[in-house]
Design a protein that fits this description.
There is one protein chain. With 225 residues, this protein is an alpha/beta fold. The protein folds into 2 domains: 2-43; 82-216, Ribonuclease H-like superfamily/Ribonuclease H (Nucleotidyltransferase, domain 5). Helix content is 35%, strand content 16%. It has helices at 2-10, 17-26, 33-43, 122-134, 156-164, 181-198, 204-212, and strands spanning 82-92, 95-104, 109-116, 144-147, 168-171. Strands 3-2-1-4-5 form a 5-stranded mixed sheet, with helices on both faces. It comes from Streptomyces marincola.
Length: 225
């Protein structure tokens, strides 16, 4: 049901069954909660539950899915052979900050990144654009860009941009971290060494400076006095 996906996306992935049901009824759609629950389960979407990690991957059920060209083999013999893309998040006093990154599998270096207060397609797209610019990629048929099956990564805009660079898009299975394990492994040190160790953060600007310019931010500047 496209309307359920639309309502869930408009809530930034936070609405669960109860709130989606209410939103549908406000729009004049009379539907039972149990039916909404079944449809959301079928679509692979869910709301945020207190105490759980915030979900950054929402599958795009109607979008064409690129093949998995990696098959959990993250080895590379040269730079710009395999890029791994991912999304993570930072909680601040004024709301969530989402971070998209592109990791080069050969050098284990982040070659593109971007932060925003939303998870729309433009976020990972900007990270991709930075990676293409920094690595001077224009036409490189040997480059594979691998990600999970999030709706941002299988969007037309994102896949078309990869094709324009003559690279190949690769997507793992839905909600399976092992299919993008190398990118997922970056989230652990990121959260432990920066987010948990140096936070909490005041707002988007404070978190962005700490993430991308760590030498300019004291580990204690975000803490309450």
């Amino acid at each position: 049901m496209p309307l359920i996906t639309e309502i869930h996306a408009e809530s930034a992935g936070t609405y669960g069954v109860r709130r989606v049901t209410r939103a549908l009824r406000r729009r004049g759609v009379e539907v039972d909660r149990c039916m909404v629950e079944r449809l959301m389960r079928k679509l692979g979407i869910e709301g945020v539950i207190r105490g759980q990690r915030r979900r950054t991957t929402a599958a795009g059920p109607s979008a064409p899915r690129p093949p998995d060209l990696v098959d959990r083999d993250f080895t590379a013999v040269r730079p710009n052979q395999l890029w791994l893309a991912g999304l993570t998040y930072v909680r601040t006093w004024s709301g969530w900050v989402y971070v998209a990154f592109v990791l080069d599998a050969y050098s284990c270096r982040i070659v593109g990144w971007q932060a925003a207060t939303h998870m729309r397609t433009v976020l990972p797209l900007d990270a991709l654009e930075m990676a293409l610019w920094r690595q001077k990629i224009k036409n490189d048929a040997g480059l594979v860009h691998h990600s999970d099956h999030g709706s941002q990564y299988v969007s037309i805009r994102h896949t078309e941009r990869i094709a324009e660079a003559d690279a190949s898009a690769s997507v793992g299975s839905v909600a399976d971290s092992y299919d993008n394990a190398m990118a997922e492994a970056l989230n652990g040190p990121f959260e432990a060494e920066l987010i948990e160790h140096q936070g909490p953060w005041r707002d988007f600007s404070h978190a962005e400076r700490a993430i991308f310019h760590p030498t300019n931010t004291s580990r204690h500047t975000g803490k309450a006095r």
